[in-house]
Amino acid sequence: MKKTIFVVALSIAGFIAVWRFEPGPVQNTAAAQPPPPAITAPPLSTAPSATPPSPSSSDNKPPGPSTSDPAGGVVTTQGTAESSVYGIVQVQVTFSGSRLTAITLLQAPDHGRAVTALPKLQEAAMQAQSANIDTVTGATETSESYKTSLQAAIDARGKR
Amino acid sequence: MTTRVEQVMGLPISLDLRDEGDFAEVVDDVFAWFRDVDARFSPFKEDSEVSRYDRGELTAAELSDDLLEVLELCAYYEQLSGGAFRARLPGRGLDPCAVVKGWAVQRAADMLKAEGAGTFCLNAGGDVVTAGEPEPGRPWRVGVRHPEQPLAVCAVLESRNGAIATSAAYERGSHILDGRSGTPATGLMSVTVVAGDLVTADALATAAFAMGAEGITWAADRPDCEILIVDDSRRVHRTAGLALAS
User: Fold this and answer.
1) Which of A71, B11, B77, B156 measures 20 to 30 Å from B138, CA to CA?
2) Contact B76/A41 with Cβ under 8 angstroms?
3) Which of B139, B236, B147, B140 is nearest to B190 (CA)?
4) pLDDT, tens digit (0-9, with 9 covering 90-100), for B167-210
5) Contact assessment for residue A43 and residue A11, using Cβ atoms and an 8 Å cutoff
6) Does any CB of chain B come closer than 8 Å to the CB of residue A44?
7) How many Cβ pairs closer than 8 A exist between chain A and B?
8) What are the angstrom distances between the C-alpha of B72 and each of A4, A38, B179?
9) Rounded to a whole number, what is the largest CA-CA distance in chain B?
10) pLDDT in tens, B116-136
């Protein structure tokens, strides 16, 4: 049981740390280099029809000790409600034996950041010269579309 | 200075490495890694680990740590998106591609950094990881492709040690499905997400695109990213922290 409490506490701490991470401009996040939530995210069980990793195979993933609990009982623990810059966050963590089986958000911020809606795409559009940019983000997913893309022009410039 | 472009994993992958020195070996390793990922995780290859697992020829206990990590990421983003993002749609095979791409490219960037590379831009099918800055004091300038004009951009973003991913339907039609309905996603023309790593950026962009219009506030509410989204009525939505180039 002590192990379970320890693991629950670790999970909640990790989850809240992710929630409370305050993003800045790209330059600042670069300096901070926070661990991506994807990596800190504990394995979650999901709908049965999905593809949850099997218990036997995810033994190396829980953040705490993962020795099997012979009792194998289901334990559900609620974290304390923590305030973050985005509002109150509270999670509930469920264990089956020593295995984390579910994380549920009990409270989440109900309002997010403001999103600026600019009038129309034409006004934001610009005819970029490939000389002005280093690379292009976009869905360039086939070799055919790549050949005629801005990225191809940029790559060709680099080869000279 | 090294540049390399290859078509791997069904994607054009461009590496622009500006560090002085000989990085030929790690660059070879990076592209070998992409070929390896393609062989192991492509649902379109019959003998890939993903296909064999999907057919029941491998049990979960027999899967590699890499595939387990990918499947856990899929489960995480499925929960986070309320099911809009799904690696397994009803009646279809397991397809973790949406997570594999960002995960594999981020891993490649980490391989480069581990070998001492600190100034590069890696672009895989329009998903970008940057390291350092190409010139002292100047960040990487990343154009966001205009959703209607292949050779134009609708914004230019600045990036240092970050990741930018875009999901859109302008290229292969509506191939991104809303996992909640199983039908092609509608409502948005393109979703660009800026995050600290490409796993996050790519998964959030795909999930937000799959959600449609509600993906705008959903993505904006994520604390770990900035967004630039063009909706179907051609409005541009962006978060205040987005690093637009001046």
Assistant:
1) B11
2) yes
3) B147
4) 998 866 667 889 999 899 999 999 999 999 999 999 999 999 99
5) no
6) yes
7) 285
8) 21, 9, 17
9) 54
10) 999 999 999 999 999 999 999
